[in-house]
Amino acid sequence: MGHDAKLETWLATTGTLLVSVDSKDCQPFSIPIVPEELRKWNEKAYEPKVVSIGPRFNGRRELLPMEETKWRCMMSLLNRTQDPLTSLKSLMEIALALDAAVRASYGEKIIQDRYELATIMVNDGCFLLELLSSGSEGFDPRQPSFRAIVRDLPPGPSAEAVLRNLPPTLGAEVGKMKAVLSDLTLLENQIPLFILIKFFTKLFPHYENEKRL
After folding, report:
1. Which of 7, 190, 195, 196 is buried most, with the most CB atoms less than 10 Å from its CB?
2. pTM, entire model
């Protein structure tokens, strides 16, 4: 019997799924579908108006204008790592390895293939991490060059003034948009929490306690 690449992929992804479920990282069907008896009264109430998160609403025409902002937030996040391209590759590898676990998290069949779904996880995961980190007091969301400037200053009023006068990050600005925040609370407009934790831990391993976000 020759080498079966599909079988090897299935074994790897299913093995990762079982480990994730056993360690309680993955909760199957944790991102459910709104019941039809609720949706029929006001379908639009359960659909995003500005930004799509996850596979269900990805690619909708009315949500496409926000994609550039998501990409810019992703670049801002990756640029705070030592090697942005290597970091991006690492996130893609994580998302691909967790394909089965990601699919199991949704209450419906995901139509995207492995690479399409992994791309959504990376794009949307980085976008959410940028928003979360930009609004967190326990995590410095600024570029390394800004942090280096502050580190070189003597402690006291001068360093505090620099921090106060730095321009807000894009993530901080987007995080203030009520329409975006509203979309992020929608039941079906989500990605698995373990994806965010895995990405954050990979990008910023020196922050040992990911709960600081």
Report:
1. 195
2. 0.77
